[in-house]
Amino acid sequence: MTSVSGTTKNGFTYEGDYEQASTDRVTWTATYRRGGHFYGMRHGRVNELTGVSVAEVDDAVKDDIESTWTRPM
């Protein structure tokens, strides 16, 4: 498992983990906080990662974590 963390564009911090689910897919989970208070958890997956570097996978996961939290429902 690989850990990632960051801050979303709307000011929530997140801590997450991801792991390889198949040769071209990772699954992730993330916990979101603001001011140290828990606000929620989400999970997801990123597909089509064949031939992608580790740094690019990290970036793709972080982008997906952010968009899952900030996109309108």
Question: How would you concisely characterize the structure shown here?
Answer:
This is TonB-dependent receptor. With 73 residues, the protein is of the alpha+beta class.
Mean pLDDT: 95
Shape: elongated
Low-confidence stretches: none
Number of domains: 1
How would you describe this structure to a colleague?
It is a single chain. The chain has one helix spanning 54-70, and strands spanning 2-7, 13-22, 25-34, 37-46. The protein is α+β, with helices and mostly antiparallel strands. The protein has a 4-stranded antiparallel beta sheet, with helices on one face. The radius of gyration is 12 Å and the shape is elongated. It comes from Dyella psychrodurans. This is TonB-dependent receptor. Keywords: Receptor.
